[in-house]
Amino acid sequence: MRIVIAGGHGKIALRLAKQLADRGDQPVALIRNPDHAADVEEAGAEAALIDLEKATVTELSEKLMNADAVVFAAGAGPGSGAARKETVDHKAAVLCADAASLAGARRFVQISAIGVDDPVPEGTEPVWAAYVEAKRAADADLRERNLELDWTILRPGRLTDEPGTGVVDLGEGVARDSVSREDVASVVVALLHEPGTAGKVLNLVNGATPVDEAVREQADGSN
């Protein structure tokens, strides 16, 4: 499969590119900074230069031509303000979905965050609140695209840089906990190769079920 990763220099994205390349897929990493090309190529991905905050849907769709799937793994990241949460975590996600639809890349996996549909408590730090709102809006947009995209929304818990465990808890009702970025990448790989998970919103934390088994259970309709 040729799989385009938006936010291709991110911590999850680099792990994802390596895992995809190792299994024989063709990852393409969308990056804004040309200085990041060497890193994504070392991970096994083809580098494609584009700024998701400035690109038009037509420009982006050209990068997605001949893709079998798209993964939205972009985020404004730590240290960014509320404005960039909106332009990256929300608007860039919508742009990627629009471009995937235009390019005919139906399979679309979006990395979100656990609990973003819950109300933001009063007194929440403004930038964090903006992040939650941006992720919620991006997910809401994607959920309306059943006719044009075979989407899956993955909502990891608190991310860590611990080594991957290969065992997770995956499903709609999974409670908040932590999960390693390596395991998030492994779940994305499995989701991309399991079309039966389309149309699902799945929470993810580390647990006790092997990744492939956890994904198959969701494809079979288990929670």
TrEMBL record:
Pfam families: NAD_binding_10 (PF13460). It comes from the Bacteria. SUPFAM superfamilies: NAD(P)-binding Rossmann-fold domains. Residues 7-195 form the NAD(P)-binding domain. PANTHER family: FLAVIN REDUCTASE-RELATED, UPF0659 PROTEIN YMR090W. This is SDR family oxidoreductase. The lineage of its organism: Bacteria, Bacillati, Actinomycetota, Actinomycetes, Streptosporangiales.
